[in-house]
Amino acid sequence: MRYALLPVLVLATLFAQKQADTKPLAEPAAVNPQSVPDKNNLLGLPPVPIPANNPQTPDKIALGDKLFHDKRFSVDGTVSCSKCHDDKQAFTDGLPVSVGHHGLTGTRNAPTVLNAAFNQSQFWDGREPDLEGQAKQPLINPVEHGLADHKQVLEIIRTDPAYLATFQSVFDVSAKKLTIDHVAKAIASFERTLIAGNSPFDRYYFNGKTDAMTDAQIRGFELFVGQGRCVSCHTIEQDHALFTDSRFHNIGVGINQIQQDIPRLTQAFLEAKNKGGQVDTMVLTDKKSSELGRFAVTDELSQIGAFKTPTLRNVELTAPYMHDGSLKTLKEVMVHYNNGGVNKAGERVNDFLSGGIRPLNLTDPQLNDLVAFMKALTSAWSGSKYANPIPTQAAN
User: Which CATH class for the 200-377 domain?
Assistant: First the structure.
């Protein structure tokens, strides 16, 4: 049943138009000394957007750091935000899908928090628009922190004199007026300091250092913007590169294995939502529902199996890959795309595959060069964390 034939054709047209409008260059840009950060890890990145209603302060960031690493905010006292977003693992956990309280597993791979400040939406399906909204969900998800409600978080804070004093200082709020929004704002403020640019690619492309990348990485970059067409979704702008278009695409991961279940799944999911079912709970507790992707948020058939384009920055450090952690290595990822959205050449693609996903006909040495380029997107590591200043750019 090809529900999405028309939307796929539209996507293909848009993809072709996007390619026509994109003029990537495989040469380093001319150096503009006025625009090149020298020590703040922002080389290759735009200014960090900061919400007007949640300005950054050192004390708020320190509070968010403490909250981010506090295991008490879980039903069994073992799960903090940092369990799935480990400082020492590029703020991921190295697992296909994350493990929550009492060893329960979800259905999705933990994306890195590095540079999440630039995301136009959060989670693989984009169900939250900002870091503040994202911070609140795992606490009460039944397979993550497992708390019954946010009141339990506030109860822990209200019995901790150090927390109470800090919240009073940072937000000028008493224990009685403390809300989960204050907690989320502090965590989000900390996460907005996890900024990582200044990779070999950035020094090559934006700082004009022609020796910053190896020959293999330069060849891989030429494929990235050329025959591989990776840049169509993992975008590079004139003065910065987030390596994501912030859109949602069905690239043939996960959904390929449940095609026969789509009619039943979509109907059952919509019925459950209409009865008050929570999207985050349904997609993290049922593997097949998880594969519905962006559809679970929008109810649009054209977005079945579509997931957010992740950034490629520091991708060398964040294996395994894809929303379900099903691809173990960067080489496997390259093979999947080279095959046109299937893991093995000749397999049937799903009916909802995004337009533009098709065989690339790259050779094995070319795939290796692409992998080499991916490694040029790794930022300089400073101890267990990236060293960053307090960003000051206000979001409109």
Answer: mainly alpha
